[in-house]
Amino acid sequence: MRPPRPGPTDSLSDIAGVLVGHHTALDDDATLGTGAATGCTVVLAPTGATAGVDVRGGGPGTRETDLLDPSHSVQQVHAVLLTGGSAYGLAAADGVMRWLEESGHGIAMGAPGQVVPIVPGAVIFDLPVGGWTVRPTAEFGYRAASVATDAVDHGSVGAGTGARAGVIKGGVGSASIVIEGGPADGITVAALMVANPVGSVWDPETGLLWGMSLADAQRRGMRLPAPEELAAANVLGEKLTVLNTTIGVVATDARLSKASCRRVAVAGHDGLARAIRPAHSPLDGDTIFALATGTHETTSPDGVPAAFPAELPILDAVCTAAAQCVERAIVDAILSATSVAGIPSYRDVFPSAFGAAE
Hints:
This protein is of the alpha+beta class. It contains seven helices and 13 strands. Helix 1 (about 90-100) crosses helix 2 and helix 5 packs parallel to helix 6 (about 310-335).
């Protein structure tokens, strides 16, 4: 089976009409447990995108997820907030709403300018990293929205600033796939994930990330880490941590219904479970949102724009790609993360894995 073909940037940027902004609060005192080491990430779809969500973790912190039930009235969202700060961090959504309102984006409710932006969100628990009382506020959300662009920064930024992946550094990662062949040919699927799980992200027998095959590692210029590094890492991995929750967004340029978006979010969790073991624990709040912009106009073989039930084979291909994108985005998050507040990165723990593959 050949590897999937990434989009031009291999990130959420490959979905037209979707923007990403981070606000990062990080200072030197974070190592002492008093400074800032948190942030938020905003995925903007200012003109609206059909959306769904699937919550699998036992300890979620979320906002506006009930609204995304396929049976409920609102059909589109204008942004998704991913944030640190545990439940406190949900305050950042107020700032995202303020920015959207000022920009004229939201559900039109009457006179010009009278709009209600829809901003679902989810949190990670990063409070013990840096100062406990330093959390994202409405100003964080406003700033993240105001700097959103069609480029994605990866690693220890935004909502990934204080993230941990078990005992090593977590972060923000992204990936994309362009579907080839079949009725979904040319559709792009992408994911942006904030990796902060209770579970382990590496195979204790090899040291490679769960979401990475040996062939994938070699394509990245990596090799199996030295045995002594692996042994030390496995001892380190036995230490318990209460930090938890992996959250993210899967987006596609396909035209999908609200119910189909929920199915895409469900499929995204398959990729999460491949890259993190165990996943969806009682201590995690694992949550994945799905967005469909409909900017890629798919047609059926007779040239008629695709619609339900012709949507089903397209949905099947998008779901398959969603799982792959989430898995690859988590790998990207771990490999892109850098040490914060004394938490070692994967590269710090396995330095011998990097360099020319043997």
